[in-house]
Amino acid sequence: MRREAAAGGLARSEIHPLVGPIDECLLDSLGDVTFDVVVSNTEDPTDASGHLAAVRIMLDKPVARSETAGRRPLVMFSSGCKDYGTMTHKHGDPALAPHTEESPLAPASASAVLVPRCTFGAQLLDKAATPYDAVVLRPTIVNGLSSSYYGSLFELAARGRDVVTIVGDPDAVMHSVNV
Fold it and tell me: How does pLDDT run across 30-52, given as a tens digit for each residue?
């Protein structure tokens, strides 16, 4: 998870929150806990490669621990639609198409800082590099709970005194994934 303050809410939902990337000793403190699913959604744009190396440990250790106990967890890694590059087509444009598993990855066209995350996601899907089951999620904005990019907008709207206006081209594709 991204923020330690969110740990209590996740724990109440029977989720073992790990503020990532984690210190390996933290896993030892969990006792006999095994995992059905391990989700990574952390990001550090200031040191993407270093951060992702630590994320790899964060994913590998709980998986190995669970497999030793006879469970095969699923790893879910959130990368983002930015892996596909810049989307410029609008509603009604004949070139507008959804992103699918067959869509080419082009993170360099969006920003060179995004290349390590996109490459890491591709490595997770490569069975020679990753011996466990993994899914790479490439949503646009993730909308959910207070740690999402929309969190501050929801907090503002919840006050009831403010008007939240989102300005954009009415033909622009504006969407998100709701968690």
Answer: 778 888 998 887 788 788 889 89
**Tokens coding 109:** 């066209």
Size (the chain), residues: 179
What's the Cα-to-Cα distance from 26 to each of 13, 17, 21, 83, rounded to whole Å? 20, 11, 11, 31
Residue type, 59: L
Dihedral sign computed on CA atoms, order 110, 113, 116, 121: negative
Q: Which of 22, 13, 19, 27 is nearest to 1 (CA)?
A: 19
Question: CA nearest 140: which of 94, 92, 172, 93?
Answer: 172
How would you class 69 by CB atoms within 10 Å of its CB: exposed for 0-12, middle for 13-18, buried for 19 or more? exposed
123-148 per-position pLDDT tens digit: 999 989 998 999 998 877 666 555 56
Q: Report the distance separating Cα 2 and Cα 42, nearest Å.
A: 6
